[in-house]
Write a structure and sequence with these properties.
By secondary structure, this protein is mainly β. It has 3 domains: 5-13 and 22-28 and 222-357, Immunoglobulin-like (Sandwich), CATH 2.60.40.420; 47-210, Cupredoxins -  blue copper proteins (Immunoglobulin-like), CATH 2.60.40; 380-564, Cupredoxins -  blue copper proteins (Immunoglobulin-like), CATH 2.60.40. It has a 7-stranded mixed β-sheet, with no helix packed on it. Strand 3 and strand 4 (91-96) form a beta hairpin. The longest helix is centred in the C-terminal third of the chain and has 17 residues, at 530-546. It is globular. The structure holds CU-O-CU linkage and copper (II) ion. Residues 437, 510, 512, 515, 520 line the site of copper (II) ion.
């Protein structure tokens, strides 16, 4: 898989050096301000057991909008303390249920739940807010939250629309019907303009959907199934979370943040006692910016059996796994034959955690199914619409910031993607930037068709795609249901989705949280008919003009929107 020089530098083990990308970009801007950070070299390895997040418990039943009685949960977001390592002071964090990661939801396909998400956080934010970012203006409450269940097929009013935030002291009720296949989803904050800060503070947790087809496979379960939330954080010398500032007065936003520690379920360098048998390890990359390239210190291989939104048709053997922010991988680690060994899980050269394999035989070792679950290919011929959607970023020398856009449009521009309910579309993600961006669509699951190199310069000149080589199919471990796709630089990444489930307003965005907060997010709308689409566009254009901010929309091609500001 192509990794650019910049990405290599950004992720090349220089843990103490945060902001590599930022400093490389910021040659004309002031250097970012650094607070002294914790030196992790002397931190003892593998002294804390890997925590397993608690399971969320329903407190009763309530009626859904369809009249069904379903389990009802209440989860409070609170400031909390967390000991990230035996030898560190407690770290101030924010957590769902006062923990990071938050409690895990265990649900079953087709069996809905209701959750009241309560914002019981303090009124002041812990990190520098950039009031220049859209949706984070100074007149808004500093602490605003709204919860999104990532990967869930959720009605629009429960999906955590970024502008549907609420301040401390308020709560929101959300309905998750769970009409979808078994998969490990996750929930996290989605508040407009400060999402990166809220998640960095600790607002994230897991949401597991199970179903009968999965249960029939007899995969390792119970204590042999390990959820693993990975992320990185910068810790200062007082062992507190540190979110760096650009150093630009009034505009603290930075393009990416990289930590000096990697947290596995909220611990630095934990260990897990395992039996010499198969384990199912379900990994989430919950980092703001960092991708993980995971491998075993033993050099051994492991198998991937599932992607973001479900099981793969067959296990894929891997020596290393690339996981971008928000992606999940369902893995099988087989420790049978390794009794008594200590095996590290690594990100590149860095230690993440250690498995300590017991020195006595396990009762049973588990069997790897040869075939797992068929994944029916969405046929390209079924697509009624193909969209060309650009990913762009450039330095705004006047605004002294970076501009990052999807489809050359800002968040507040009229909606340009309006798929019709139940129709199939192909989205071509045309990456004109030097970065890989993990692109996520709410509501739907999709399949990756291929990635193909194109002439970026020619595209910028005349907006036509000139391919420079053949298309590459997705890697075998990406050939399942996805909700987040790595759009590599200089490539057109094609995905195909059926826009099913619910009509209404959703979002799609880059899941590098710094990008998402700085305009690399767009609303999209599933409409029930083409006429609704036209009506919606007209209404939007009307309100657009009423707002006094007159913008002309010129459509060059059916799907490419160019905005010309008068
Ligand atoms: Cu992980 Cu818009 O979400
Ligand atoms: Cu991005």
């Amino acid at each position: 898989m192509p990794i650019t020089r910049r990405e290599f530098l950004k992720n090349s083990g220089l843990l103490g050096v945060a902001l590599t990308a930022a400093s490389m970009r910021a040659f004309i801007r002031p250097a970012p301000k650094f607070r002294p950070t914790l030196n992790t070299d002397s931190l003892a390895r593998f002294v804390d057991p890997l925590p397993i997040p608690s399971i969320a418990r329903a407190i009763g039943h309530r009626k859904t909008p369809t009249g069904a009685e379903v389990p009802f949960y209440r989860v409070e977001m609170r400031a909390c303390e967390s000991r990230l390592h035996r030898d560190l002071n407690p770290t101030q964090m924010w957590g769902y249920g006062s923990t990071f990661p938050g409690p895990t939801f265990e649900t079953k396909s087709g069996e809905g739940i209701l959750v009241e998400w309560i914002n019981a956080l303090p009124n002041a934010h812990v990190f520098p807010i950039d009031h220049k970012l859209h949706g984070a203006e100074r007149n808004l409450p500093e602490v605003r939250t709204v919860v999104h269940v990532h990967g869930a097929k959720t009605p629009p009013d429960s999906d955590g629309y970024p502008e549907s935030w609420y301040p401390s002291g308020k709560s929101a009720l959300a309905w998750y019907p769970n009409r979808q296949d078994a998969a490990m989803l996750w929930y996290h904050d989605h508040a407009m303009g400060i999402n990166r800060l809220n998640i960095y503070a600790g607002l994230a947790g897991l949401f597991i959907v199970r179903d009968d087809a999965e249960a029939a496979l007899n995969l390792p379960s119970g204590k042999f199934e390990i959820p693993l939330v990975l992320c990185d954080r910068l810790l200062d010398r007082d062992h507190q979370l540190y979110y760096p500032d650009s150093g630009i007065p009034g505009a603290p936003w930075i393009p990416e943040v990289y930590g000096n520690v990697i947290l596995a379920n909220g611990k630095i360098f934990p260990y897990l006692d395992v039996e010499p048998r198969m384990y199912r390890v379900r990994v989430l990359n919950a980092a703001n910016s960092r991708f993980f390239s995971l491998s075993l210190g033993s050099g051994g291989s492991f198998h991937q059996i599932g992607t973001d939104l479900g099981l793969l048709p067959a296990p894929v053997e891997l020596k290393s796994l690339l996981l971008y922010p928000a992606e999940r991988a369902d893995l099988i680690f087989d420790f049978s034959g390794h009794a008594g060994e200590r095996i590290e899980l690594k990100h590149q050269a860095m230690e993440v955690m250690q498995f300590r394999v017991a020195d006595e035989p396990a009762k049973e070792t588990g069997v790897m199914p040869a075939r797992i679950r068929p994944v029916a290919k969405l046929a390209e011929s079924a697509a009624v619409t193909t969209r060309m959607l650009t990913l762009v970023e450039y330095d705004d020398y006047v605004g002294n910031s970076m501009v990052m856009l999807l489809n050359s449009s800002h968040w507040s521009d009229p909606v340009t993607e309006q798929p019709i309910l139940d129709s199939v579309e192909i989205w071509n993600l045309v990456n004109l930037t030097e970065d890989a961006h993990p692109i996520h669509l709410h509501l739907v699951r999709f399949q990756i068709l291929d990635r193909r190199p194109f002439d970026v310069f020619a595209y910028q000149q005349n907006r036509t795609i000139r391919y420079l080589g053949p298309a590459t199919p997705p890697d075998p471990n990406e050939a399942g249901w996805k909700d987040t796709v790595r759009a590599d630089p200089g490539l057109v990444t094609r995905i195909i989705a059926r826009f099913e489930g619910f009509a209404g307003r959703y979002v799609w965005h880059c899941h590098l949280l710094e990008h998402e907060d700085n305009e690399m997010m767009r609303p999209y709308e599933v409409v029930t008919s083409a006429s609704e689409r036209v009506a919606a566009i007209t209404a939007q254009e009307a309100s657009w003009c009423i707002g006094g901010n007159v913008v002309r929309l010129t459509r060059s091609q059916s799907c490419n929107t160019i905005l010309t500001r008068p």
